[in-house]
Amino acid sequence: MPDAEELANRISTLLAAKGIPFETKRMMGGVAFMVDDKMCIGTAKNRLMVRFDPALHEEVLARLGTGPMDFTGRVMRGFVFVQPAAVRDDVRLGSWLDLALDYNPRAKRSVKKRKKESCGQSRAPILARLSQLDAGMGFFSGKIGRRGA
Q1: Residue 53: CB atoms within 10 Å
Q2: Ranges in the chain annotated CATH 3.90.1150.30
Q3: pLDDT at 136
Q4: How far is it, in rounded angstroms, from Cα 109 to Cα 36?
C-alpha cells in the first residue's frame, strides 16, 4: 500500500511528464496539486483526492475504490477519495489525473482571503491626512476654540 509521500511523488512525476506546470500546497493533512491556481488532485493521508466535473459525480463515485469527500461533514460534489488499491500502478493513477485535468480549465478558483491589516497600518493614512488638515486649520494645535484668545 503506497504512503502519502510516495503517492505525491508519483503524481508529481506524471504531471511533469505531461509538461503541466503545477504548485504543491500542504492542506487537509496531505498535499494538493494546484494547476492554474486551482486545486486539481492531491493526497489526504494515504488516499488520492480528485477534483472533477460535478455533473459526473454519481458516475465517478460508482468507480471501484472511490468514496465521497466529506471533510466538512457533508459530501462535496465533484470531489472523491480514491483508496490506495485503486491507484496501485501509474496507468490507474494516470486515468484519475486525466479526469482531474479535463475539468481543471472549467473549475473555479477558490476565493483567497485577504490578510487583515493591523490597526496601526490601516489608521496611518487617516492620521497622516488629519495632520495635514490640522496644519492648515489648527484644530489640534489649540488655535481654534480657545476662550479669550
Answers
A1: 16
A2: 4-106
A3: 62
A4: 9
Q: pLDDT band for position 109 (50/70/90)?
A: confident
- Confidence (pLDDT) at 54: 96
Question: How confident is the model at residue 112, as a pLDDT?
Answer: 66
pTM over 0.90: no
Q: Which residue has the cell 496539486?
A: 33
Bridge partners, residue 39, by sequence: 34
In three-state secondary structure terms, 82 is strand
Predicted confidence band of residue 143 (pLDDT cuts 50, 70, 90)? low
Q: Are 96 and 49 in contact (CB under 8 A)?
A: no
Domain 4-106 has CATH 3.90.1150.30: yes
Kindly report the number of other CB atoms within 10 A of residue 2's CB atom: 18
Amino acid 3 reads D
**Cα dist from 127 to 3, 48, 86, 131, 132, whole Å:** 55, 52, 61, 6, 9
